[in-house]
Write a structure and sequence with these properties.
two-stranded antiparallel sheet; 4 strands; alpha+beta; single chain
Length: about 170
């Protein structure tokens, strides 16, 4: 009798689950972190022959930074479209905007570590469903398709949850 038939551990399924867990965790964490990204402009003097020029010429360089002051849970361009939607109350949009980044970061860390993996995956699926709802309202079909792929990956990870190893509180 093979290990699959006897209910034993199957290394391929365990590694598949671990790979999904890592990918979904990185995706969630990085997406949440990018909510804090901004650009900082810096003017530097143009050098001529290795020396700063005497004409006052400068060039502007943009540098990506991360800070609490740059936080936007919902990008401004999309927030304007959502604000015009009658199915999204303004107070709900403000709450969603304020919490989306931290929620994605927390879910990413929790999934990567393996804390209550099934509940974390379910919560992640609910976040992706809520994002899908918003994108359907503003007719962003490409984003809806991408989120559909994420939902499929979450469902696959939930299906493989019994093979979840290297996790804390594996029961949940």
């Amino acid at each position: 009798m093979s290990s699959n038939e006897s209910g034993g551990n199957d290394l391929g399924l365990t590694l598949g689950m671990l790979t999904l867990r890592i990918w979904l965790a990185m995706r969630s964490f990085q997406t949440g972190l990018e909510k804090y990204a901004g650009m900082k402009a810096d003017d530097t003097a143009v050098e001529l022959d290795g020396e700063p020029n005497t004409y006052g010429l400068t060039e502007e360089t943009m540098e990506k930074t991360y800070s609490f002051s740059d936080y936007h849970g919902v990008p401004a361009a999309l927030a304007d479209k959502f604000a015009k939607e009658p199915l999204i109350p303004g107070f709900f949009l403000k709450i969603y905007d304020a919490t989306l980044g931290p929620i994605l970061i927390i879910l990413g860390i929790t999934l990567l570590i393996g804390i209550c993996t099934r509940f974390t995956l379910f919560a992640m699926g609910l976040v992706y469903c809520s994002l899908t709802f918003g994108l359907i309202l503003i007719k962003q079909d490409a984003g809806v398709a991408w989120l559909g792929i994420h939902i499929i990956m979450v469902v696959l990870a939930l299906t493989l949850a019994r093979y979840n190893r290297l996790a804390i509180m594996n029961k949940f």
